[in-house]
């Protein structure tokens, strides 16, 4: 067991990390009606402040994009055993819902990022 006192923060030497949490790929955020199709390159759970999954998709040679997933996309991937190497399409659907506020005002809104559909394509071996 060490007998030395714990050094202060200022006494420590800066170090470089070998892990890189930054993504070299382009970040995308699908708007209602938009979709992306690509081969899953990586699925990284528990990222960011809300422990959300990040999905990296290759849309072609040298064209890799990253996007935040959500529980709907995660469930579709899990339920269909989709992961690295599978080709998927993810679409932000244009579903809307109408609700009445406490003041009696009727409002319409898109269902947000939770309104996604996921399709898969099995490629021949």
Topology:
Layout: E1 26-27, E2 35-47, E3 52-60, E4 63-68, H1 71-79, E5 87-92, E6 96-100, E7 106-110, E8 116-121
The Rg value, from CA coordinates, equals 21 Å
Fraction in beta strands? 35-45%
The portion of residues assigned to helices is under 10%
Order of helices and strands: EEEEHEEEE
Overall pLDDT metric: 80
Shape: extended
Strand order of the largest sheet: 1-4-3-2-5-8
**Poorly predicted runs of 5 or more residues:** none
For the largest beta-sheet, the strand count, sense and barrel status come to: 6 strands, mixed
Which structural class best describes the helix and strand composition?
mainly beta
N-end to C-end Cα span: 56 Å
Q: How many strands?
A: 8
Number of helical segments? Answer: 1
Give structural notes.
The chain is mainly β and 125 residues long. The protein is 7% helix and 42% strand. It has 1 helix and 8 strands; from the N terminus they run E-E-E-E-H-E-E-E-E. The mean pLDDT is 80. The strands form 2 sheets. Strands 1-4-3-2-5-8 form a 6-stranded mixed beta sheet, covered by helices on one side. A two-stranded antiparallel sheet has the order 6-7. It is extended, with a radius of gyration of 21 Å.
């Amino acid at each position: 067991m060490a007998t030395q006192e714990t050094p202060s923060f200022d006494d420590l030497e800066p170090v470089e990390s070998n892990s890189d949490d930054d993504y070299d790929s382009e970040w995308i955020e699908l708007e209602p009606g938009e979709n992306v199709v690509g081969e899953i390159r990586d699925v990284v759970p528990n990222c960011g402040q809300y422990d959300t999954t990040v999905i990296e998709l290759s849309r072609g040679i040298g064209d890799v994009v990253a996007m935040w997933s959500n529980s709907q996309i995660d469930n579709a991937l899990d339920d269909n055993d989709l992961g690295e190497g599978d080709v998927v399409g993810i679409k932000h659907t244009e579903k809307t819902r109408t609700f009445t506020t406490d003041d009696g005002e009727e409002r319409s809104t898109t269902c947000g990022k939770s309104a996604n559909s996921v399709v898969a394509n099995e490629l021949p071996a």
